Amino acid sequence: MIGAMIKFLYFDLFMMLRYLFWKVLLLSSGSRIGKRAKIYEGVRIVCNHPQSINIGDGVRILRNATIATSRSGNISIGNNVHIGEGTIIYSDKEIKIKDNVIIGPQNIIVDFDHVYAAQEIPIIKQDHNAREIIIEEDVWISAHCSIIRGVRLGKGSVVGAGSVVNKDVAGHSFVKEQIGR
């Protein structure tokens, strides 16, 4: 009895309260969160302009994940997507995650990088390159992976643990190590 009460309070009630909190916050910025979304504790969602983050139905965002945009970025997360603990998704242009995607723990998905063109100018004052990332349906990104700007992960592809992906991955294929351009 006590175990069931603790489970209800910790998981069900707090999960519902976090969902309502994020629903109100996202709606107030013109963004949206779908039905049955589960947002665990410690999640950070940062919309730096109206309508910049849209989260589908049945999405699970585990502890300490960060989903954020710059003033020009957009993030679209489809239905039934799982985002693992400690994952960072940051957009300066556009990141599209389609339906039924599994993103494991401690991944980094970022659609831009910094320019290092002039040694006499600090890197922080130089420009950056941003290109869209598309993660198609039924993709599995394992743990500790980096998905870099301009990448398309094809439908049904699998990215093995520790991979750095900086070029397109064909559908129904497996990436198990660092690949380059």
How are the SSEs placed, and which strands pair?
Layout: H1 2-28, E1 32-33, E2 38-39, E3 44-46, E4 53-55, E5 60-61, E6 66-69, E7 75-77, E8 82-83, E9 88-91, E10 95-97, E11 102-103, E12 108-110, E13 112-114, E14 128-130, E15 133-135, E16 140-141, E17 146-147, E18 152-153, E19 158-159, E20 164-165, E21 174-175
Parallel strand pairs: 1-4, 2-5, 3-6, 4-7, 5-8, 6-9, 7-10, 8-11, 9-12, 10-15, 11-16, 12-17, 15-18, 16-19, 17-20, 19-21
Antiparallel strand pairs: 13-14
Uncertain stretches of 5 or more adjacent residues: none
Helix count equals: 1
Fraction of residues in β-strands? 25-35%
Number of strands: 21
Terminal residue distance:
58 Å
The biggest sheet amounts to:
7 strands, parallel
Tell me roughly what share of residues is in helical segments. 10-25%
The radius of gyration computed from the alpha-carbon positions, rounded to a whole number of angstroms, is 17 Å
Sheet with the most strands: spatial strand order: 2-5-8-11-16-19-21
Q: Which H/E pattern describes the elements?
A: HEEEEEEEEEEEEEEEEEEEEE
> Average pLDDT across residues?
92
Overall shape:
globular
Structural classification? alpha/beta
